[in-house]
Write a structure and sequence with these properties.
CATH architecture of the largest domain: 3-Layer(aba) Sandwich
Distance between the termini: 122 Å
Strand order of the largest sheet: 2-1-5-6-16-15-13-10
Largest sheet: 8 strands, mixed
Number of domains: 3
CATH class of the largest domain: Alpha Beta
CATH topology of the largest domain: Rossmann fold
Number of helices: 10
Shape: elongated
Strand content: 25-35%
Helix content: 10-25%
Length: about 425
């Protein structure tokens, strides 16, 4: 049977390829959701519907489905992956630990929700992402002072946490008023990974232990060192969310009222929905995604980019930076964008001014050093994708016919030379004609 050409094989997948993650449309629109039980589709439907209402295409599969896969014919079928399968010991199909890590290394996004029954596989994936869950498989986060009294009186594993990271780009500009309900396993951040951040922390009185047994040894995780929800943005700008609780995504926790122990304020609704919705916007690049375009440099007073500069030239550098709002590119406004004029080390470091319409610019004088320089913009800010721009340009010295005919700074040397010649002439005349 003759083989079909590759373009004919890919025709059925063209609609997917055309809507995939791209620099001009950076939101992760096609998301694979792996579940332990298909009943999670209904018990966590509010969270899933919030994603679908924003245009995400969710493909629900059982984690052990033998037909699942992340890529086909060398192309990734999905832009994001949600693992709501904490008890899964082994994925079906072609998905395994290496496939998930390759998925993230290729710039795709990942959400992991665990609980106190988390399998070794889920723990290993989290460890590779810079997070270490409590080694005790029966451990849960316990807090005797910051527990929630809205559901089951005396259940100190039901945490009401309001220790959020202070970042509008991560959690949105609207203030989170009510605490977040959490019930699950705590984790710590790997000190070897500087990219992972705590988004929701436990209170100083919390600790991680088995709630059904008495403490015989000091708990391994205590206080604010316990992270309940963490995020990571990799160097390739892939984003990861890791939660120690699957039930915090559920409809029950989304709709439940909450009252924190020791307070009189009772909130009719927890902040789980607001917190996780805003965080998912960040994870799937609906917020905090930057792009830089129209990098330009030229001599002051000119418009064309030269092939090289001369020492002491006056130049102008500009770049346009935009932020993805979820639907369109909006001008990014900040006052901490810098450019370096770099050769082995920065000879010039300048803050860029902005017209608040996306354009950043500055002007400076080329240093009195010739060689091969680079314009470099290395922009890293909490919650935003990093920008790394570089443009190489040589700098030459003056040509022999470009120097000033007479240099004012050398007038004393000119005077010394001519005065020496005049003195020598007078001395010679006196010596020859004096009897």
């Amino acid at each position: 049977m003759p083989k079909l050409p590759l373009f004919l094989i890919l025709i059925p997948f063209l609609p997917f390829l055309c809507t995939s993650f791209s620099p001009e449309n950076p939101s992760s629109r096609r998301v694979l959701v792996l579940l332990d039980d298909l009943a999670l589709k209904s018990s966590h439907s509010v969270y899933f519907k919030s994603l679908q209402s924003r245009g995400f295409e969710l493909d629900f599969k059982l984690a052990d489905d033998p037909k699942i896969g992340l890529q086909r014919y060398g192309q990734y079928l999905y832009d994001g992956l949600i693992l709501f399968c904490p008890t899964t010991d082994r994925f079906g199909g072609s998905i395994d630990l290496a496939a998930i890590l390759d998925f993230v290394d290729s710039g795709h996004d990942l959400i992991i929700a665990a609980d106190n029954n988390a399998s070794d596989l889920i723990r290993e994936i989290a460890t590779e992402c810079g997070v270490d869950f409590d080694e005790d498989p029966a451990a849960m986060v316990i807090d005797h002072t910051s527990y929630a009294v809205s559901e089951t009186e005396g259940d100190h594993t039901l945490i009401a946490s309001d220790d959020f990271i202070k970042s509008n780009v991560l959690l949105g500009s609207e203030k989170i008023e009510a605490p977040v309900l959490f019930q699950g396993i705590g984790h710590s951040l790997s000190p070897a990974n500087s990219l992972v951040l705590k988004v929701l922390s436990a209170s100083p009185s919390a600790y991680s232990a088995n709630p059904k047994s008495k403490l015989s040894n000091p708990p391994s995780l205590t206080g604010s060192a316990i992270s309940l929800v963490s995020i990571l943005q990799a160097r390739n700008n892939a984003r990861i969310l890791i939660s120690g609780s699957l039930v915090m995504f559920s409809n029950r926790f989304f709709r439940s009222g909450v009252q924190k122990a020791g307070t009189l304020t009772k909130h009719e609704k927890s902040s789980n929905e607001q917190f996780l919705t805003e965080l998912s916007k960040w994870v799937f690049h609906e917020r905090g995604h930057l792009k830089a375009v129209n990098v330009q440099h030229h001599k002051d007073g000119e418009a064309d980019e030269p092939s090289m500069y001369r020492i002491n030239d006056d130049l102008v550098y500009s770049v346009e930076i935009y932020e993805w709002s979820g639907r369109s590119w909006e001008p990014y406004v900040a006052d901490d964008v810098q450019v370096q004029f770099y050769m082995m080390s920065p000879y010039v470091l300048k803050n860029l001014s902005t017209d608040k319409k996306g354009r950043y610019f500055t002007a400076f004088k080329v240093p009195d050093v010739y060689g091969v320089f680079q314009f470099k913009v290395e922009y890293q800010r909490l919650g935003y994708t990093s920008l790394s721009l570089s443009k190489q340009i040589p700098v030459r010295p003056y040509r022999h016919n470009e120097y000033e005919r007479f240099i004012p700074a050398a007038y004393p040397y000119y005077g010394a030379a001519f005065s020496m010649m005049a003195g020598f002439f007078i001395f010679t005349a006196v010596h020859l004609y004096n009897k």
